[in-house]
Amino acid sequence: MLPPDAYRILVVDDSEMIVRLVATALKEANFQVSTALSGEEALELIGRFGLPHLALVDINMPPGMDGFEFCETVHQFSDLPIIMLTAIDHEDTIIQAIDQFAEDYITKPFNTGELVARVRRVLRRIGDFTYTLAPITQVDERLSIDFPGRKVIVNGEENSLTPTEAKLLYILLRAAGRTVTIDFLLRRLWPLEKANEDRLRVYVHRLRRKIEADGGQQYISSQRGIGYSFLVLSGVRPN
Q: What is the mean pLDDT of each run of 10 residues along the chain (239 residues)?
């Protein structure tokens, strides 16, 4: 696991008091912290500075986008780990959040020490984030990825990604150099559907066509019946 100061955490809540409280606790634990008072502001920050490593998100943020809408939008181009931080403790809401979007669910009021511990636990489970997340993620001289814009740039040529392709690429890139199992990919890409390996294979093939189109470089390696990995290229030092 990377040291805390290598991780960027985004706090999204319409309460300035909560934002200050959470940001202070995370900074004292040596995390880098950015804050937003709405889902719209959070998406603007992601567009300007790139995806964080994890987001803490409130659900009710009137009058605009609520927490679920923010999660749904950001998961159109990534698999950003999210912890819901909210006053809503209804069972149906908790189930919906964990089924569809969240790695964890914390209800207000909360203990800041426990919150920091849960953040660390999610980050340990998710992995090391081999490549630096930025507005444009530079893989090598040939390939760059714009996750918020949902596109890849190969040798200067742009190609758009579908939401599933973008999410798949994000998951593989996050674990670059390590094999991601078929089961994990199916659960992350289609959490509410019963998907099979054949469906996954189709999306891997489509993604390869877009990032390996000219045959200049192989980025995705497959282990039949086990999973897929994003190759860390010789001489490339991602972080």
A: 83 97 97 97 95 96 94 95 96 94 95 97 84 85 93 94 96 92 94 89 95 83 94 56
User: Burial, 212: exposed, middle or buried (Cβ in 10 Å; 0-12, 13-18, 19+)?
Assistant: middle
32: β partners: 8
Structure tokens at 159: 């190609």
- Look at residue 235 and tell me if it is in a domain: no
Give the domain range for residue 49. 4-126
8 lies in the same domain as 120 = yes
CB 7 within 8 A of CB 56: no
Q: pTM for this structure?
A: 0.90
Residue 132 within a domain:
no
Closest to 34 measured CA to CA, from 15, 12, 14: 12
Q: How far apart are CA 87 and CA 42, in angstroms?
A: 20
Phi/psi of residue 36, nearest 5 degrees: -145, 145
